[in-house]
Sequence to fold (176 residues):
Amino acid sequence: MSLKIEAAEDLIVLPEPLRWVVVHTRPRCEKKLADAAEREGIRAYVPLIARTHAYGRRKRTFLSPLFTGYAFCCGDAPQRRWLSQNQNTANLLDVFDQETLVVQLRHVQTALKSGLLVDVKPFLETGRQVRITSGPLRGAEGVIVRISGKMRVLLSVDMIQQAAVVEVDSAALAPL
Fold:
């Protein structure tokens, strides 16, 4: 049985004591950690995306981690301890809802295999404080609200307890 996660069918919730964990890696160590984990018999998944860089007239395509700084691994308690002590690991994040993580990773993997353009954006949920990073409102800070199904930014004037609501493209928002 291969430990390399290549198909959505390989992303499954395994019976105890095997559990998925999110490994926060040291900078630029996602693939190194996944390779080392697989050598230790630990299932590892790092969603990869092709990125092309131009060097003068030459172009090179690299497979880079979609989620910079994160790898997803599944192992028993001794294997998770090995992961936490690995030189490429910064931190280990326990996953309390194993089923949800696996379903979400399957969705990401399906999107990557579909050939559609996939990119990472910050998770912007309702109530989150954000800063507008481009456009005429660059530098303004507000709170995400949803009105009529559209994401908008609430710009508050605390002294008069009023707020203006502005529709802003999510690409122009950065979480605080």
About this structure: Helices lie at 30-39, 77-85, 98-114. The mean pLDDT is 87. Residues 8-114 form a domain with the Alpha-Beta Plaits fold (CATH 3.30.70).
